Structure formats: structure tokens, C-alpha cells
Write the C-alpha cells for this entry.
Amino acid sequence: MWKDFVQTSKFGNLAELDVGLRSYFQGLRSPNRLFISWLGRAMENRRVAPPFHGELDPFIEKAFVSTLQDSGHAELLTADEFGDNLSKRSIKGTEIDQTLPIHGVLSTVDQNTILTTHWDSCCSFLCTNDKAISDKALYSFEGFKCTKQTDVYWGLH
């Protein structure tokens, strides 16, 4: 979890880590070289690879497809990052491969559950209603449940 990552690194908070990640991926006009070095050292110490920048992580895709299967869904929709080029595919036998969009959207056919990522972020968003997927199934994903009061900010700088 990112909170754990902050606690075991030199970053003081998630905001600094956000700047470090965006600097690492060349997403800021004035990258913070110190934060890049902290990030590199922390990743090396924890023996982790950098996160997928603006892409759906294959591990999250696999967990999402498995969660849909376990929830009784037989098909899913895929679309590009703009929600265009919509196509329906069978979940049965679906392997995580190059045919799933890396900058895209995966969803249930009724679109009550959607997985997407922001093109300039290191986070993905799983959007669902309370009835579409059980709380138990959601434990496969790191994060929190949003409410109508939840705000999303696309960056700190």
C-alpha cells in the first residue's frame, strides 16, 4: 500500500510521493530530483518495480476479471481510454493479454462496475454500486469506498 511505502521511505506524506512519482515519469515541468532519488532508493529497498504509469496494471486486470467471474458475470465490455471502440467479450477463457486495453476501460455489460485508470496517474479506479460486487470481492483491491462526498483531484502540482 502507498501509505506503507511512505512510512518506510523518506517521503513525509502521500503528496510528496505523488510529486516523486510524477517526477519519475517526467510528468512535471520541474521534476523534483531529490524525490526521484528517494523513490528509486525506496523501490530498491522494498524490491519493487515502478508502478504502471497511466496503464491498467495486469495484476489489477486479472483480479477484476476474476472478481467478475466470481460474481456471476459471463461477459465484459472493453473500450479505449475515451470509452470508444466498445466491444463485448466472453470472460470464460479470458486471459490477460495484449487485447485488453492498457489505457482503457473494462466494465460489466450493464456498466454497473467499471475499472479504469487516469492517463497521467499511478492509480486505477474501480467504480461500482453497493449491489454489483460483494464487499468480500472488493478486498482484492487496495483503496477505499467513495461516497457522494468523495472528491478526486488529478494531481497536486
The longest strand covers residues 75-79. The mean pLDDT is 78. The CA atoms of residues 122 and 135 lie 24 Å apart.
